[in-house]
Amino acid sequence: MTMTSEWLSVLPKAELHMHIDGSLQAERMLQLAKKNGIDLPYSTVEDVKAAYQFEDLQSFLDLYYLGASVLREEDDFYHLMMDYLVKCREDNIVHTEIMVEPQTYLANGIDFDVFMSGFKRAITDAKSWGISVLLILSLLKHTTEDECIAVLNMADDYSDDFVALGMASTEIGNPPEKFQRLYELGKGRGYNLQTHSGEEGAADLIWGSLETMQAMRIDHGVRCTDDPQLVEHLKKHQIPLTVCPLSNVRLRVFDKIEDHNIIDLLKEEVLVTVNSDDPAYFGGFLNDNYHALIDAFDLDKTDVLALVKNGFRASYLPESRINAFVNELDGMLGG
Ligand SMILES: [Zn+2]
Questions:
Q1: pLDDT digits (tens, 9 = 90+) for 28-38
Q2: How far is the C-alpha of 198 from the C-alpha of 200, rounded, in Å?
Q3: Of these four, 12, 79, 152, 228, which has the most CB atoms within 10 Å of its CB?
Q4: How many domains does the chain have?
């Protein structure tokens, strides 16, 4: 481990792009499947991990929804959340904004109350060690806008628990125009607006996400470099991109980590952040993503610190807390 990597582990960090179902580790998946009598085509941790060789986004999503099907009871959701928050403590993530996808659970006949009370109980327990947690209501692009609006309405009982409205899942074939009304409604409820875009889809979908969906933060967004005007726009308005390096390599957005454009974007002063996306499936939690970048691009402390600070600057924390974290990090450059 290089000096920079050791130093990284003690930096306080934020994570902004992490799907809670994507943190379901193989051991927990098998344990819950057994407890709940759910048939999976895997019987060992090795079987599950062997299935992590994805061809593309769709082949990943097929396994992802199968994995989430083992979650049934309040306690299951508690453990899913707590397992991730324990990982946060190991990686020194002090602030995390977690995507919750109700449609995945509703499809299995599980009520809002069941998963939300499990998640909230874990978050309450973890607060004792000082982590701050915000939740993002994440809806699925492959479903209809009417279905998404129905879930948005259901979430009204939990509007204090969600800081933002986002969308994930298949972007190609589900353009921003499909969800214009949904995002108008989300805006009317006071949610921050964000969406997955520019992962598999081209730069025009990122433009649509900004203009039609009125998104203020883009999850992934790496295809922006296909359009220099878009890069300039993102830089000028400091619109955050929540980038997930290991995910992008696993899902073949880039062939290898050395081909990733996040460091070019950082040098161009686009507000890029480092995140793990679906860490159990993509070969690493947050610090593993940083380590991969440090090794591939021979990053120095200034580069790493810029990425870590961006994680706070792009967050939904109040300005005063962002400034406090940025100042604390500035003081750690020489450490
Ligand atoms: Zn994602």
A1: 999 999 999 99
A2: 6
A3: 152
A4: 1
Residue 334 placed within a domain: no
Residue 166 bridge partners (DSSP): 138
Residues 136-150: tens digit of each pLDDT: 999 999 999 999 999
Q: Do 261 and 71 touch, CB atoms closer than 8 A?
A: no
For ligand 1, the distance from its centroid to the CA atom of residue 302, given in whole angstroms, is 27
Specify if 74 maps to a domain.
Answer: yes
Known catalytic membership, residue 199: yes
Query: Which residues in 132-154 are b (16+ Cβ under 10 Å) and which e?
Result: bbbbbbbbbbebebeebbebbee
Phi, psi of 93 (to 5 degrees): -85, 115
194: closest CA among 217, 177, 161, 214? 217
Q: Which residues have CB less than 5 Å away from ligand 1 (the ion)?
A: 277
Question: Which residues is 140 bridged to in the sheet?
Answer: 168
For residue 144, the enclosing domain spans: 3-329
Residue 295, class by beta-carbon neighbours within 10 Å (0-12 exposed, 13-18 middle, 19+ buried)? Answer: middle
For residue 138, how far is its CA from the centre of ligand 1 (angstroms)? 10
